[in-house]
Sequence to fold (583 residues):
Amino acid sequence: MTTPKNLYRQIKYDIAFRKLATGTGIFVIILVVAAFLTLVYESWPAIKAYGVKFLWNTTWDPVTLEFGALPFLVGTLITSFLALAISVPFALAGAIFLGELAPPQIANPVSFVIELLAGIPSVIYGLWALFYLVPLVRAFQMKIGAPPYGLGLFTASLVLAIMILPYALSVARDVISLVPQDLKEAAYGLGATRWETIRHVVLPYARSGILAGIVLALGRALGETMAVTMVIGNRSAMPQSIWDLANTMASVIANEFTEATEDLHLAALVEIGLLLFVITVIVNLIARIFIVKTKVR
Amino acid sequence: MNNSYPARENWRRLKNRLILGTITVLALIPTVPLFLILFQLLHKGLSSLSLDFFLNLPAPPGEPGGGIANAIVGTIIIVGLATLIGVPISIMAGIYLSEYGKESKLAHAVRISADVLQGVPSIVIGIVAYAWVVRPMGHFSALSGSVALALMMIPVVVRTTEEVLRLVPDILREASLALGIPYWRTVLKVVLPTGMVGVTTGILIAVARIAGETAPLLFTAFGNQFMTFNPLEPMNALPLVIFNYATSPYEDWWQQAWGASIVLVFMVLALNIVSRLLARRIAGEK
Fold:
């Protein structure tokens, strides 16, 4: 039998548990805010020393302590968008193929393999690229008369394209498979061919979701570190062509962080991390808007 | 007029075939590099595996018999510690979202925070862990690596816990409450166990995701040529070995990088497959 005293204790426990759970929820918010503030605090010396000029100064010289992030911003943007440009047509075709054309006996195992590939660590993509992709690109560069580094912006974009493909593909495929069967059948009933149904019914219906997948893939490409670091060549000057050795925001941090002895150098690297944080948060929030749109419908 | 009709029909049919054919070809092209990666990984990796490789410590370049025993142990310790740090926080936050916060403003703020955290690049998480743990301690440590990985784990487990607990029917909660059991015990003894398989799946997915992470370990766990079990010291991990050996100028280290890769891929794939089987079991139960 529950005595009043026991009841009172249980109510106290109930309140305590609710407070604990709520507190943990708040703790998650605090973690994110604290991470952001930590980045601001740690990069403050660099923010104070260079101001907004940091964003468009093209010189990055740890010896003279002159730091500008433009080469890395450019490197990140070029590799990410080039990777996206290479990857999206294939991802979309793959998603349509798996979602609409292939019989389930083929589509299911292939989707399974693709999802497993999305789980392979990026350092392993980097290892593969370093020993197989780099020689291939070098041979290609020799043929067309470009400087035969093998490494560089183009190679990094290729690896990124391969890495984000499973990601973009599986999101797009999921959305495409959500298109209601009766809509498609209505189109067939009107005499539409398979392609016309895909073009005018499936793709418009799935558009927000596909866009969300592309934006999520972009977010991943922007922050991808290891595979890029291993093949981009690590040169901190402004890239002049697609074949140049370069650095992205993530790769310069990976390369120089443990070697930075000057406080200002470290602060400048953290500021690049802060920029990366802000950019990826914006990109992910955009993806979230698309996802909400898909769900609302 | 009568003539143009079939012509148009034929054109539509031809266009249909052409485009669907192009799509199929485009869909098949990317399987080439993906299969090449798997094939070359198996080909290069399996040949460098041996019992010594699993049991020995790293050797200097040129010296035969180097192994990755310390990296395997290191990865298990670092990931295990990250799980110990991350999972309780994540489950409690998930319970908050599903049982208490629901549609409140605070709950939405927690969800958005988790989404933001999930999107933060791993290298940036590494910087944060460096500032939080490495700087105050004065040196690199496995613990700081675990903190970084725990930060990456939290959003995944929070969201899966919430989703799974929300699927638990309210009838179960009401039945438990009707028996006079207080809400906190209902959550811990009825709701959470019901969703346990799903939560476990979420944890496994998160562990698979962080086990291969390299970037956040570069300046936290840092790497170590020797065996250590002390989480307050720098520690080696499989991804670090792969990165350091692959970018070294020594051919026998490259070979070992492939060997370490296949061990890591096997671990990650096993976790992924187990979590998928569990997920399928839940789907089957529904």
User: Anything to note?
Assistant: Chain A touches chain B through 83 residues (CB under 8 Å). Chain A has a mean pLDDT of 92. Chain A has ten helices and two strands.
